[in-house]
Amino acid sequence: MDSIWTTILSSAGAAAIVSAIASYIINILTQKHKYKDDYYKMVINKRMEAYQYIETQIQVMKLTIVDKDPNPYFMMFSGDSKLFYESQNNLTLAASNSLWLSQEMVDKLRQLQQHFLTIGAKITDDTENNILVGKEWYTKLGEDRRIIENCLKKDMLSLYDVKSFLKEKTERKSVIMEVPKTNK
Asked: pTM for the full model?
């Protein structure tokens, strides 16, 4: 009879030990998975914040004016140089958050920034001059906006794929932008 109780108690003790170890391992795996999920949520939130700047910049670049001359221009050209540069604030904020953007989007924004640098060399505090510059660049900036908007749509479709995004970010290339000479 004693051997039966010894067998039962040792089996119960072994079962308790195995159960505790299994519970511990499952708990560790669950915590690791939760940590990964929380990290991915943080990455997605940071990306959404960066893309919000781009969306706002696109909205700024949709504000079009048509005057007596049938050639349109964007509102950012309808004032002094301060208005022109303030209209690029969201582009600057998006660029400063480029770590959270796809490489394709970073490249498209860099192209737009290069265009704004080129245009900035022609911008003065003379509104009439700026309107003429705006009319000259209307088509090209509209095309830039359309390309960026399409890239934004494409990126939104894969925003959930954090693993692929992080893998893409392991290789960064640095680019030096040309700053044109001003004629002011």
From this structure: 0.76
